[in-house]
Design goal:
Blueprint: E1 12-14, E2 20-22, H1 26-47, H2 51-71, H3 75-78, H4 93-107, H5 123-148, H6 153-176
Antiparallel strand pairs: 1-2
């Protein structure tokens, strides 16, 4: 398989189904940011030493690939005229419920949050915070795309919950490493 096709040399890329758009199209930006997030999840996995967390992150990475595939599908191929999906949607509410379960399990172990904390700590903690901010950026891009084209609201909901998961994961990594959280001090 040859990796270079040269079809994007003119600044365009192909969506699922063959339609070509510019590489700075909001749809390409949205799924590109999901891809960037997925890469950071991979980076978290490389710093992680806990099997259960690795299994969770593996599920999340697969889900992000599914979201990217759905975002790379133009709405005219994805939805019929009555707004119902034409093709099989790749994620469901079950994925959000799974994130919520994982958040609840980790939240039971970390100390209650009484104020804002600085996004710092060990490498796994800090990388989780970076992934959280990328997740928020991807979510904003998808919201922007949804204002111009039809996107399933479930995708936005998933990324919103994923950013919560990544915040709790960052705190959980700090807890496991016995790192003290540093509170935000607005007067410093």
């Amino acid at each position: 398989m040859i990796i270079y096709t040269k079809t994007g040399d003119n600044g365009t890329t192909g969506l699922y189904g063959g339609k070509r758009v510019t590489k700075n199209h909001i749809r390409v930006q949205a799924y590109g940011e999901v891809d960037e997030l997925n890469s950071y999840i991979g980076l978290i996995r490389s710093y992680n030493t806990y099997r259960e967390i690795d299994e969770q992150l593996h599920v999340i990475q697969n889900t992000l690939f599914n979201i990217g595939a759905e975002l790379a599908t133009p709405s005219d191929r994805m939805f019929s005229t009555n707004g119902k999906p034409k093709i099989s949607c790749l994620i469901s509410d079950k994925k959000i419920f799974l994130l919520e379960q994982w958040i609840d399990i980790m939240s039971e172990k970390v100390p209650p949050l009484k104020q804002f904390i600085l996004p710092t700590g060990n490498v796994a903690t800090s990388t989780s915070h970076v992934a959280r901010t990328i997740c928020r950026r991807a979510e904003r891009s998808i919201v922007t795309l949804s204002e111009a084209d039809e996107i399933r609201p479930l995708i936005i909901k998933y990324l919103n919950r994923l950013s919560d998961y990544l915040f709790v994961l960052a705190r959980y990594f700090g807890y496991l490493a016995n790192n003290k959280e540093i509170p935000w001090n607005p007067n410093e």
